[in-house]
Fold this protein.
Amino acid sequence: MQTTKSTAPTAIVTGGSRGLGRAVAAALAAEGWEVVVDGRDAAAVVAAGTAAGAWTVPGDVGDPAHRAALLEAVECRTGRLDLVVNNASTLGPSPLPVLAGYPLDELRDVLETNVVAPLGLVQLALPLLRRSAGAVLNVTSDAAVEPYRGWGGYGTSKAALDQWSNVLAAEEPAVRVWWVDPGDMRTRMHQEAFPGEDIGDRPEPETVVPAILRLLAERPPSGRVRAADLLAAAVGSGAGR
């Protein structure tokens, strides 16, 4: 029986049962991190965690008790926290409605999941993140800054996520805060945004992972980051050698 805690860097990755969250969790675990993942589909998150070698805490990040359970898992496993990846997100109604007819109850649900819940998790995590000079990585979208028809609800939530990330960075100088736009990906949520359409031309989430790992390795100042820019910079620096 294990009697000492691991000293490896530790991350929480929300929405780790599929898509970008699953890919990031697997990559971090392969790099030697202790990773705690969550997801609302218990069977899916346990399967993903087992495959990645990550610790699993099934549940909804919108539930305050579940957020507390994520921190309890970290305390039990390592007692340290170096990274929170707020990846869990909801698209909202599908097909995407225009704002003139957007159901307000559903908009509140989108804001709760995409804005309030990740902040609630970060509030709990900050004492440990300050201690480790850790980082918060919030997954955002170009819909936060571009006016795409039908994306008003989701885009509004991501714009709010961007802004509280920006303010948090000013308030917590000891912690890196990045809000990362991964670009279009071949995910279930993206498919839900385009029901009945073929999204096979979108890249797999795994193609974004090298940008995330580069960000963690280089630890630039807090700010908004496009994964495409990080990947292009990596190609450019490699070509120059």
About this structure: The chain has one domain: 10-239.
